């Protein structure tokens, strides 16, 4: 066991405070990681506030982890001390079910072990990346290529793979027209990745406030969804619409923006059920779909792709004592575009 410094929420909705936590001893297939940067994902805030479900407290959030290996178990073959590595949204899965065997561990039939607020195979509650160190099985660790600085790589471990996986699955590339709905933590990375894949990229955002950023990050077009003309002008335009929005949407209106066989893919999760007239799906053989993070092999593929194309998150690095202020700023959309905690300040 080792003791590391961390930031934890002691109770639901309580501010995070500095504390210490225990990490398990490094066993045969584990690597110990000195965390250098940890991204703040909107879902960290949902979890601390128990917006989705009950979670165990104290809660140490963080599933966008970038750091350096400091120790490896005797059976570890993939990593060595000094390697630059990342950990994303989960740290284990059953490894036997059909999905795990296909590299779709995020859809593990037995449920994966989330990086925090989950119970691992040792019966211990998992603690996430708002900490100075973590111990993870090597099979759930990915390599961060040298070309990617660790700070801008950290958010790719959730925001990057969450958008990369559906863009690959629905075949974004040269000749395809992709719309990214929402220009926030997920959306800005989606714009960069879709552009790097060679797609023609359109941002659909509530206003034109972030238009200059969108075009700079690789968008070809930028439209305000508050303007009704947008929906007339873009009728039947897109092969893929990737929705990163978690507010309730008029799905019928967005489905009409798809071409025949187009797909509206949700990675944002509104808390309320949706209502939909199925005419908007049936007419045009359209798909209304969803996608959840990505598997380990695909996460590695995403990092290699991002390194090759110079894609990193746009970040604002903060000191650990600013975490609670950063949470407030995320909730008021006052971040361009991802907060990253400098773990040296924890
Ligand atoms: Zn996340
Ligand atoms: Zn499984």
Automatic annotation (TrEMBL):
Residues 14-341 form the Enoyl reductase (ER) domain. Its cofactor is Zn(2+). The keyword Oxidoreductase applies. Keywords: Metal-binding, Oxidoreductase, Zinc. It is an enzyme of class 1 (oxidoreductase). Its EC number is 1.1.1.2. InterPro entries: ADH-like_C, ADH-like_N, ADH_Zn_CS, CAD-like, ER, GroES-like_sf, NAD(P)-bd_dom_sf. Gene3D superfamilies: Medium-chain alcohol dehydrogenases, catalytic domain, NAD(P)-binding Rossmann-like Domain. SMART domains: PKS_ER (SM00829). One of its GO terms (molecular function) is zinc ion binding. Pfam families: ADH_N, ADH_zinc_N. SUPFAM superfamilies: GroES-like, NAD(P)-binding Rossmann-fold domains. It catalyses: a primary alcohol + NADP(+) = an aldehyde + NADPH + H(+). Belongs to the zinc-containing alcohol dehydrogenase family. This is alcohol dehydrogenase (NADP(+)).
